[in-house]
Amino acid sequence: MLLYDHPLSPYAQKVRILLREKGLSFDVQTPEGLGSGVITDFATLNPRMEVPALVVEGHTICDSTIIMEFLEDRYPETSMMPTDPFERAQCRETEEICDTLYEANNWGLLEVGIFGRGGDIADKLRASAAREISTLNAWLESRLGENGWLSGARYGHADIAAIPYVVTAAWLGIAPKPGSPLAGWRERTSARPAVAETLAEAKVAFDAMGQYSTALESGVMRRQYRDHRLEWTLRAGGLSVLLEGLERDNVRFTDIGLFAV
Asked: Of 23, 106, 136, 190, which one's alpha carbon is 20 to 30 angstroms from that of 128?
């Protein structure tokens, strides 16, 4: 198996964790030009020009949620999904909220902190993200079961889906309250070998993010403002950020033309 990804992508992280939890061997590759908006050969594998994409048995599968569902279907021996339909639905709910609302807030903090967006309203954007992440952390905590997991009676799919976001937020300065149930969950989940290895890879990439501080001005990167990220920008009061990015041509959207057959 070949996984196209970037170690800091939370979408890629959850796929790496699941592959490792299932004991599956895989190689990784970061697509050429990822984040630049420049069309490369990777578009033939994933027209959305996003990671992750998994190449397995001659097939390419895109979107982290779809990849995780495929891995459960194709390799059911070590299942990470609970058997109860209601618990399975809750796992999917947790994943959806983390992939959209939580991800957008972490992404927004990176836009402001690493890429220098916001100017005079940067503090306002940071405060909005901090409030929303704290709310989402409380929501996640409310979903912990009696055994302290998000996936029901045992560690599983929802825990894998949520841990990249909670940890990244903590690296960005917004961690679960010390001594809280969610802090305990983070510690237990992060200690699992598959999770620890993946987070260590992500931390290396996170610590190197400073090198991209001038990437927008130099034209090396054009950040993607898709769906939930665009919503967050507007909800947080960042319309001026979007307009400035459009004027400077350092924001981008999905190119539907890449789907042309």
From this structure: 190
Helix (H, G, I), strand (E, B) or coil at 180: coil
Q: Is the dihedral of CA 212, 214, 220, 223 positive or negative?
A: positive
In which element (H, E) is residue 20 found? helix 10-21
Report residue 183 as tokens.
């802090």
Q: What confidence score (pLDDT) does residue 10 get?
A: 98
Whole-model pTM: value is 0.96
Helices (H) and strands (E) in the chain, counts: 11, 6
Q: Which residue do the tokens 């058997």 mark?
A: 83
CA angle 255, 258, 261 (to 5 degrees): 150
Q: With beta carbons less than 8 A apart as the criterion, state whether 11 and 52 touch.
A: yes
Alpha helices in 98-155 (DSSP H): 103-113, 122-142
Q: Where are the beta strands (DSSP E) in the chain?
A: 2-4, 27-29, 53-56, 59-62, 223-224, 251-252
Residue ranges of the chain with per-residue pLDDT less than 50: none
Question: Domains (ranges, CATH) in the chain?
Answer: 2-78 (3.40.30.10), 85-210 (1.20.1050.10)
CA 25 to chain centre: 22
Contact 92/79 with Cβ under 8 angstroms? Answer: no
Tokens 């993946």 belong to which residue? 198
At 158, list the tokens.
């929802």
pLDDT digit string, tens, across residues 206-226: 999 998 889 888 888 999 999
pLDDT for res 37: 76
Give Cα 59 to chain centroid, integer Å. Answer: 23
